Amino acid sequence: MMRLERYIAASLLKGWSLVLLIMLALFSLFVFVVELDHVDNRYRVLNALHYVALTLPQRAMDLSPAIFLLGTLAALAALAKHNELIGMLSAGVTRVRLVRCVAVPAVLLVALLTLFSEFVSAPLYQLAETRRSSIRSDSADSLNGKGLWSKSGLRFINVRKVRLGWIPTGIDLYEFEPDGALKTAIHADHALLSPGSRQWTLVDARYKAWIDGHESSRHLKKLDLGPFWLSKELPALSISTAGMSLVGLHEYIRYLTDTGQAARPYQLAFWQKASIPLTAGMMVMLAVPIGAEVRPLRGATFGRRMASGAMIGILFYLGTQLIQAGGMLLGLDAALIALTPVLILFLTSGFLFYRMRW
Predict the structure, then answer these.
(1) Least confident residue range of 7-21, 43-57, 223-237, 282-296
(2) DSSP of 237-253
(3) Pick from 239, 24, 210: which is nearest to 123 by CA?
(4) What is the Cα–Cα distance from 168 to 228, expressed in whole angstroms?
(5) Sign of CA dihedral 240, 241, 244, 247
(6) Which structural domain range is residue 309 located in?
(7) Residue 227, preceding peptide bond in cis (omega within 30° of 0)
(8) What integer pLDDT is reported at residue 230 of this predicted model?
(9) Termini Cα distance of the chain
(10) 0.85 cut: is pTM over it?
(11) Same-domain pairing of 340 and 290
(12) Could you say which of 128, 172, 269, 289 would form a disulfide bridge with 158 (CB–CB 3.0 to 4.6 Å)?
């Protein structure tokens, strides 16, 4: 990478880091204040602080479009304030090269955000939600090590883990005779649940039975049994889509489709999550023609540019909400609804680049 590219990339990194720290501190304080309202004998201040800390990465992901818009504006405005942009123009730096200098970090940013969301922010957010839900419901140890147990007469059931917060997995069911002899033993990979129903469909079940001292076993692809827990009674079901990775969301959408449930809201959530890195990257490109003014920059003008960036962020957020609500009402494809704001940013930045004075 040439010296100019490295210098601009370093300036962008400084701007992004500064805005990131400011916005994370501000919004984390808001979340902490909300959590303090739930502090009691079980859920203490340290638990609230732990929750805020674990959700920091996901909060950064949610704020990333605004962070990179304002951070890019701040970096370019700082270059303009010290007449460095004028120096670049005088040295023969073309508009295309300037765009390339910003585009390379933006592409790297999109790739890093995608990996960060999938392997860092989503798992930590899910862990935070699970722990908070368990502590508040006084069931912190229900799924700790030995899983969740239940007894109904002479029947015992164990759920080893609740995957994605909705799908019970690693299910063992034992039924005994009145004299204590084991009557049946069932192990299933996971279960399909329907809202409001205590009947479960055990998937990939191994069924063993003992009759008159003789053992019989068989493998069943699906086995309907009940009554068990309702879906809302399982622990950690308060996990939102923010705590699910793209792979997890895709898997849950397939689960909802297999059980005949409405999957459309989660399809939209999947594409919204997938579009966040793209939106952040396009925000960087949108900020270039706004921030790369070559005229001398004073403090008041610097403030106006930052204010214009904040206004763009607010308008984009409101516009996105309108597009999503309208798209859902019209029954449009979830991918189209989620990616339309990205397309609008792309066209807007292209238009501004075309009119850019450089």
Answers:
(1) 223-237
(2) TT--GGGS-HHHHHHHH
(3) 239
(4) 11
(5) positive
(6) 3-137+264-354
(7) yes
(8) 65
(9) 23
(10) no
(11) yes
(12) 172
Q: Using H for helix, E for strand and C for coil, what is the string for 205-219?
A: EEEEEEECCEEEEEE
Cβ neighbors of 88 (< 8 A, separation 6 or more) are 4, 98
Is 236:130 a contact under the CB 8 Å cutoff? yes
- Check whether residue 202 and residue 287 sit in a common domain: no
| Burial call 279-304: b when 16+ CB within 10 Å, e when fewer | bbbbbbbbbbbbbbbbeebeeeebee
Domains identified in the chain, total number: 2
Amino acid letter, residue 151: K
Q: How far is CA 347 from CA 97, 103, 107, 152, 314, in A?
A: 20, 16, 18, 61, 18
- Do 34 and 89 share a structural domain? yes
For residue 202, what are the β-bridge partners?
Answer: 191, 223
Boundary of a domain, candidates 182, 216, 234: 234
C-alpha–C-alpha distance, residues 127 and 208, integer Å: 35
**Helix 3-36 × helix 45-54 angle, to 10°:** 150
The answer to whether the CB of 273 falls within 8 A of the CB of 249 is: yes
pLDDT tens-place string over residues 108-151 = 989 999 999 889 998 899 888 877 876 776 544 444 445 677 77
Q: Which residues pair with 176 in a beta bridge?
A: 182
Q: Which residue, chain included where needed, has tokens 């540019």?
A: 305
pLDDT digits (tens, 9 = 90+) for 260-316: 777 888 899 999 999 999 999 999 999 998 888 655 555 556 677 778 888 888 899
**What is each CA distance from 346 to 50, 61, 349, in whole angstroms?**
38, 20, 5
Structural domain contains residue 247: no
Q: Could you tell me which of 268, 339, 348 has the C-alpha nearest to residue 315?
A: 348
Rounded to 5°, the CA angle 18-24-25 comes to: 90
Residues 68, 286: contact at Cβ < 8 Å? no
